[in-house]
Design goal:
Layout: H1 10-14, H2 45-50, H3 52-62, H4 66-82, H5 84-93, E1 99-103, E2 111-112, E3 122-123, H6 125-146, E4 154-164, E5 173-176, E6 179-182, E7 185-193, E8 200-208, E9 214-228, E10 233-237, H7 250-276, H8 278-313, H9 322-325
Antiparallel strand pairs: 1-7, 2-3, 4-9, 5-6, 7-8, 8-9, 9-10
Length: about 325
């Protein structure tokens, strides 16, 4: 959610020089102000994680003491050990432990070119679907083998496909001193089985390696079929895959993951913001509030003057259609 009436996030207003780098996208959440001290709802953890590296970059730009630089390094170490922003997001979203693999298979035809640096290299839908199908089939077949089921003559047939456009994905092409570079992507997949029909429901999220930018997601539901080549028949297989849900209480597991992310990573970021530039952000917010109030007061005065002029001239509706008023 953007600040009402504000064109730029707080960081780009306090440090306007950062606007020269279009790829910097710090957070602009009203509920999570700079250096937030109150309780942050769990639903806002994922939006904060999507801007994590950008907020850390702003923090470094604001000017840090030596001990603060060391603490930023510790935050980065925790992020890396956790698997990056993408891994942390899936950890707080999904019940099953996600499977991760890195792909550098995307070619020039798989992405859109764009003038805007932020959206240069958005992955095309057909490429997302191809990556999803490859990743899901690999994941499902590995789970079939782990579950002790025979994988001979098993065919996977897609029954439901969705490619999500929300939130808006970012491009995988980044600008370097040597020119544009297409980043590899980290692919996170998770499975669950539907008790009703035995289908396997698969989720995939894509993030750029290193930067951790969200690059797309998809869901595909598969039906498992066992093929009999001799009888030339196919019979549905009710999947009972052994999924790693890290315990029976998946909701509780996700809550623990969110608490760890908030306390050890986001909480430390917000603490450093309070120590460095949150006061500048607070002054900016107060200034904007005063400016909005002044603008609204001026609008009220102008409206009152228009109403007074209309009464004095006897025209209660100065914008009334003269033709319509003559009937």
């Amino acid at each position: 959610m953007a600040h009402q009436g504000l064109r730029f996030p707080p960081a780009l207003q306090v440090f306007p020089h950062l606007r020269n780098w279009r790829s910097i996208r710090p957070r602009r959440l009203v509920e999570v102000p700079i250096g937030v001290t109150g309780e942050v709802p769990d639903k806002l953890i994922i939006p904060c994680l999507r801007h994590l590296y950008h907020d850390l970059g702003v923090l470094v730009y604001s000017g840090l003491k030596h001990n603060q630089i060391v603490r930023v390094g510790e935050i980065l170490r925790l992020i890396t050990n956790s698997g990056g922003p993408g891994k942390m997001i899936t950890m707080t979203q999904w019940a099953e432990k996600s499977r991760t693999r890195r792909s550098a298979k995307l070619e020039e035809d798989d992405v859109f070119g764009a003038v805007d640096i932020v959206y240069s290299g958005i992955i095309k839908s057909q490429a997302i679907l191809r990556l999803a199908d490859e990743s899901f089939q690999e994941h499902i077949r590995a789970k079939i083998e782990e579950s002790g089921l025979s994988k001979d003559n098993i065919q996977l047939r897609s029954r439901y496909i969705i490619i999500r456009s929300v939130p808006s994905p970012k491009g995988i092409i980044t600008q370097t001193v040597d020119g544009p570079r297409r980043l590899p992507i980290d692919i996170f997949t998770s499975l669950r089985t539907e008790e009703r029909n035995g289908h396997v429901s698969c989720e995939m999220q894509l993030y750029t390696a290193g930067k951790g930018d969200y690059a797309g997601s998809a869901r595909v539901d598969y039906q498992l079929l066992r093929v009999n080549e001799v009888a030339k028949t196919m019979m549905p297989v009710h999947a009972h895959l052994e999924l790693d849900t890290r315990g029976e209480d998946a909701t509780g597991i996700r809550e623990v993951a969110r608490k760890i992310v908030k306390a050890q990573i986001l909480g430390q970021l917000w603490k450093l913001e309070r120590e460095t530039w949150s006061r500048k952000a607070d002054r900016l917010v107060n200034y904007n509030k005063v400016g909005i109030k002044t603008m609204r007061a001026a609008e009220d005065v102008s409206k009152a003057e228009d109403d007074k002029e209309a009464r004095e001239t006897g025209d209660e509706s100065p914008l009334k259609d003269p033709v319509a008023g003559s009937h």
